[in-house]
Amino acid sequence: MAASVARDRLPPLVWAAVLIGAAIMVAPLIWTLLLSLKSNTELVGNSGAALQPPYTLGNYVAIFGSSSTTRWLLNSAVVSLGTTAGVLILASLAGYGFARLDFPFRRSLFVLVLLGLAIPSQAVILHQHQLFADLGLHNSYPGLILPGLIGPFGVFFMTQYMRAIPKELDEAAMLDGASRFTIFWRVILPLTVPAQSTLAVFTFLGSWNDYWWPLISATRSDMYTLTVGLAASQMNYAQTSGLGFLMAQAVFASIPIFMVYIIFQKQIVRAMAGAALK
Amino acid sequence: MPGLELRNIRKAFKGTEVLAGVELAVAPREFIAFLGPSGSGKSTLLRIVAGLETADEGEVVLDDRRIDTLPPGDRGVAMVFQHYALYPHMTVRENMAFGLKNARVPRGEIDALVSDAAKVLEIEELLDRKPGQMSGGQRQRVAIGRAIVKKPRLFLLDEPLSNLDAALRLRTRVELAQLRQRVDAGVIMVTHDQAEAMTLADRIVVFNDRRIQQVAPPMEIYSRPANSFVARFVGSPAMTILPARLDGGGDFARVVLGNDARVDTRVPRNGLPQGETVEIGMRPESVRVCGLGEGTTDAEVQLVERLGERSLVYARLRDGAAITAEDEGTTSAKVGDQVGLRIDGAAAHLFGPDGTGYHRQAA
Ligand SMILES: Nc1ncnc2c1ncn2[C@@H]1O[C@H](COP(=O)(O)OP(=O)(O)O)[C@@H](O)[C@H]1O
Ligand SMILES: [Mg+2]
Prior knowledge:
By secondary structure, chain A is mostly helical. Chain A has helices at 2-8, 12-36, 40-43, 58-65, 67-100, 106-116, 121-134, 141-145, 152-163, 167-175, 180-191, 193-209, 212-217, 226-235, 243-263, 265-277. Chain A folds into two domains: 2-61, no CATH class; 68-235, MetI-like fold. Chain B folds into two domains: 4-226, 3-Layer(aba) Sandwich (Rossmann fold), CATH 3.40.50.300; 237-358, CATH 2.40.50.140. Chain B is 23% helix and 35% strand. Chain B is built from eight helices and 21 strands. In chain B, the strands form four sheets. Chain B has a six-stranded mixed sheet with strand order 6-7-8-3-9-10, with helices on both faces. In chain B, strands 13-12-11-14-20-21 form a six-stranded antiparallel sheet. Residues 13, 18, 36, 38-44 of chain B line the site of adenosine-5'-diphosphate (ADP).
């Protein structure tokens, strides 16, 4: 078909443009990687040394030596996974309710959820901070996870996805003697796996990269997430062990994200393409 | 009384009445076809029997048990959906076992039931596939299989063949007829395809305008339509129905068409409504093309359809009325020709002013 012809014979000029674009995108990443592989002393005064050997893994060894980074990594993992799991559960249940159940004020409530999309988190941050302080939840995992569970987008997304599943399937299951919960659990939920994985990837990435709320809520360094921790060490540049170490931290911090992208590449691309087409 | 009984079923959607007091009795093991134009409430009635829709009024009774108060899964009915509604993430085996699992049938028994049904439907080699990996015809069989394993007392099929291509539809129709001999249950099939209804059903229920128009065996629906709607709806091409005037006769009614052509029918004169305005109905096969002036009336040919073994001739009478006639496959009639038409009065039907049908006495 037309699309595959276009893919097979990309005009040379387009090829060149794509290559240049890719090179520009990749250059800082490679630069970071190279810097992270140099000893800090060599980089003092001349970061250009990164282009020549000798290279060393010393900075990475140092990361594991200092307990903070691994602790932050663990915090980020707990918070991101906890948020993702929570969002999936809540969005699926709410989505099923909006898509399939008939209850009073269903439409109004759905509109309310949509309005939630329009409220920036900055607008509520003061009260949120106060609330969590009153509840004594700062510097705790629940304190870091709970705000991330407010997910109007997830609810909207799952509702739309479930609405698109033919009602005939529910009806077939009803005739097959399935209970409401069995229909949700055995018929509808398995069919939403593509949506679940898309939502999971976005939630995970968003939570992993979140900087603001952990910065406000986690004031003790042992409750820092990776983003907050890394930023804190960079602000203290004078006290760090140097540029190479910083870069190693950055590389280290991006490994989990990198893996998520690699593993879920298909879902991410599909989600992006879907968003573009609709 | 065993079998299915529908008592005074009423249903409205948001104030719009869809079923206005439907009464129907279906014998055990009977094959019933619901036939009617789209939107006439066939699916709604089927879904009321299944429990997917609730009637506003009336009762559904199956084998002397009132079932309209039970959830769909407890009614002893199984349904085959128009788009099959197979669970896409389950294999064929899992699709067929799902209902049995919910009914807590023991594992071993489920396996036996599923493989029996698979054998009957010749889908054994598909058991581990998913619906997405099968053709439409295969999905159709699996959908039927999923209904069969539950050993229901009544099968409900909503336009089960409408998604198949013509060749496959014919084959599946034959298979459905054969299958029907093997299952010990009644069948209600919704269709808007009269050939399906005619060939498969023991009795046809014709729907229109919120009501059942006629319930009768296929040949009776065809030869003794209860009213002019049924007469027009069943038969292809449709029966020609023209205004006419009663004009004496002996035991049987004689009518005069708009252009003064006279037709002697075999419809008994007594029993006909008062007054002389009626309509006469003629199937194409009882209107034959003949030489000009040799028939009951003359007409001008508007269109000729050659079907091979016969031809259909669409013509216009002198007063402008359209009439459909039949001729040999090798007809020489051409558009614009003046021809004669011989109307077989013995096969003609009369319809009263309210549409009620009057026919020759049954043999
Ligand atoms: N869930 C519903 N809500 C509103 N109107 C409906 C619903 N289901 C069916 N109808 C209406 O009821 C009428 C009969 O529909 P249906 O029983 O599906 O007809 P058929 O199967 O004979 O084509 C149609 O006018 C249809 O629009
Ligand atoms: Mg229908």
